[in-house]
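To whoever picks this up:

The nightly regression suite flagged O-phospho-L-seryl-tRNA:Cys-tRNA synthase as changed. Nothing in the input moved, so I suspect the structure step. Input below, exactly as stored in the fixture:
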Amino acid sequence: MSIRVEKTFAALFALEDLREIYRGSLPTGLDADEEQAFRAKIADLKSLIADLESDRGTPRPSKIAGTLDVRAREEQFINIHPIQAAGRLTPAARKALISYGDGYSTCDFCRKPFRLDKITRPGIAAFHADLAKFVNMDQARVVPGARRGFQAVTSTLVGKGDPVIVSALAHYTEFLAVEEAGGVVKEVPLDAGHHVTADATAAKIEDVQRETGKTPALVMIDHYDYQFANEHDVRGIAKVAHQYDIPFLYNGAYTVGVMPVDGKAIGADFVVGSGHKSMASVAPSGVLATTDEWASSVLRTTAMVGDVTSRKFGIKEVEMLGCTLMGGTLLSMMASFPTVEERTLRWDEEVKKSNFFIDSLLAITGSQVLSEYPRKHTLTKVDTTGSFDTVARTHKRRGFYFSDELSKRGIVGEFAGATRTWKLNTYGLSWKQIHYLADAFTEIADTYGLPRTR
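Regenerated output under the current build:
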């Protein structure tokens, strides 16, 4: 870790120690011992600032609570990890996490009806309305990750033995959500380009009806899948689903928060997004949005009454288990939201950056793109069996030589040791970083004598 990055974290931790002094004091102010501790910590902080200014100093132990490493990946490296790119917190989200990290911090001003989406200080109620508008749906709820959005819908609509249509590229959490509800997944096969089409979906529904005598309870399809990040015909698939009177769940784990999403234009009955994957939010976080038609079902309130106490909690929503995201998780999502809204308008630029890098990679002879090309997304699956893997076959470090070379150039996030098929994501990188990334891959190829077309 560079000395400036190390000292930056040390200064941040010193400020937290200052906060802790106030947390243990009386509202009337610091006593003599606390004042002495405060001044000692200020002196320490001044020393750290001096080290930062001079770019020198003695490194301090970089463990939190004695065992946890400081995570400085985003400060030290260009990170191309496939699932981390769009979940990087904004500065506002990091500040919100510092301020609202306490467990039930969102409940400071919770009043009747005692429900998360009704809280007005901070503006959580308004945020729910903003989320619904953001994806052009009628109502929205925050949930602990996209998977809990799937779960809320399947537990509402799917009964024992009910078939549910998913993609042959569906995420495992879609499978689990269906299984937990007692349903059975039925996969739509892919075409030659690894796409799910409307025609194939219609054919699968017909097959399922013939085989089971049942109409599927739900069609659940990713806009961009997690394996190839190929675009699938969600509008056409939604239309097909409705022709069979089947509700359609749009899986926007890789779209909501990075590109414009219009749920009603798509024809979605449910839109699910991932906060920690695509909305610059702390994990686990996500969003479930729905139309008014389905809100009374998936957002139903409890009717249960205690047999001894006669207690009832009618305002609590069953699928949400009352309240969902509390504390820093939710506030990070709220704090990032203005940036997230704005950045979706620059999606075309992000795709241009992705294609610039991929074009550079393809210039290294033997490299291939397994995803659709040109790219329509920043997540890409590549095959370097014919390029970087040819070196790994005889290198003493095998595939790890490639990770070594990238790390030496300040690049992380590739699958360690992978030189055949692997995934990367360029989302959020500046053009300066994109050029650096492309040049780094070219340098590695040249170092090992791999031919290039340019």
